[in-house]
Design goal:
It contains 5 helices and no strands. It is an all-alpha fold.
């Protein structure tokens, strides 16, 4: 498994955690700007590594947008869910491509 796939699993898991209604939003709002910058940085690193490895970059791009808009309660929740699913699907596809 390559580094970009590992980071997609990690960032997808973090996004899934923040998709937990109310709990994710409360933690996100009480740790600003630290958690925002950490998550944004992880998505940027994942994007760069995905480009380098020639893998899908859609999940990382959406993750960057999600990190910037997560402070909006309902929109942030929906975006966290979509981003988590997209990142995990990308990671699984990357693993499957390596096995073949």
């Amino acid at each position: 498994m390559n580094t970009s796939s590992v980071l997609k699993w990690v960032t997808g898991g973090i996004e899934a955690f923040f998709a937990i209604p109310l709990l994710g939003w409360l933690i996100y709002m009480h740790t600003l700007p630290g958690l925002f910058l950490l998550l944004l940085g992880l998505h940027i690193v994942t994007l760069v590594l995905s480009i380098r490895d020639g893998k899908n970059k859609h999940g990382s791009i959406l993750g960057i947008v999600t990190a910037c808009l997560a402070w909006i309660p309902i929109l942030g929740w929906v975006m966290h869910m979509i981003t988590a699913v997209l990142l995990m699907v990308d990671a699984k596809r990357s693993e499957r491509a390596i096995e073949m």
